[in-house]
Amino acid sequence: MIEAIQLTKKYKKTTAVKGISFKVKEGETLGLIGTSGCGKTTTLKMLNRLIQPTSGQILINGKDVTTTKPEILRQGIGYVIQNTGLFPHYTVAENIAIVPRLLKWDEKKITKRTEELLDLMGLPQKFAPRYPSELSGGQKQRVGIARALAANPPIVLLDEPFGALDRITRGQIQQEFKQLESLLHKTMVLVTHDIFEAVELCDRLVVMNKGKIEQIGTPKELIFNPVNDFVRDFFKVNLFQLELKVMLLKDLIPKIKPIDVNGSNIKTYIEDSNLLDILEDVEESSLKKSLIKITNQQGDSLVTTNCEALLTAFYQTK
Ligand SMILES: Nc1ncnc2c1ncn2[C@@H]1O[C@H](COP(=O)(O)OP(=O)(O)OP(=O)(O)O)[C@@H](O)[C@H]1O
Ligand SMILES: [Mg+2]
Question: pTM value?
């Protein structure tokens, strides 16, 4: 759906982006990660023509973006700006309504959509007439996301959408974000410096370094098969947790030793659960000795085992 071909952006003193190419499939979430200043925001802004590339080409649905007027192009591309970028002199409702107004929706439809989006983002309706300065950081970020979704664009670009949040709030919003029905089928490009967020929310990741791409792949490919030292080092901090996070129960099943059971403490997980969530869950409820039943989506039992056998299977699979 989106294709970047040999994109380059030169400024007077720096070349922010150096001939990068990547594709984003329809319905996919692609993450851009890398050290600060490596060109993530610049790349994102070139996709919706907020920045003009020095050279290279961007195709959306096979069509060169330069053949569409920037205003028209941006109506089909939601954009969540780094540090929320809300207009301070616009109310929450006015901020959300920016694109619908550009599209000349009638006021009734705009009001209805604004109410719907406030609900969707878990924001109370009474926030509509408030100004951004009267909201917390997390609330502002939710408004920023609501604004990007207002006209239901097929493509959404997000630049550090949860950047300013503490870990707990961020975790909650990430979970909500992941489950948002209206985002399920969107094509998204997400910039983040939070590796866990990238792994949690993205189908594939682009690891950038000094304006270039080091590797593109699924989180699992990057974590288990980094192509060079840069990528390896990038995931080195918290590597064990990341490995657990990308390993799903179904990946382990061939190596899992079944345990014969008549115990009572059995916890059930579906095969798409990741190992990190399970180990955290088990620890939290102090069920260290408890048994784990793995089922498929339909609820049929596949195997029953315990944590120790899961970890053994993890090491063997890895
Ligand atoms: N308007 C500009 N003029 C000159 N240099 C710029 C301009 N905008 C960005 N740069 C430089 O281009 C490089 C890439 O910037 P960019 O904002 O894309 O980085 P980033 O990966 O988004 O970083 P961060 O994670 O800190 O947001 C940086 O070295 C930056 O200083
Ligand atoms: Mg940036």
Answer: 0.89
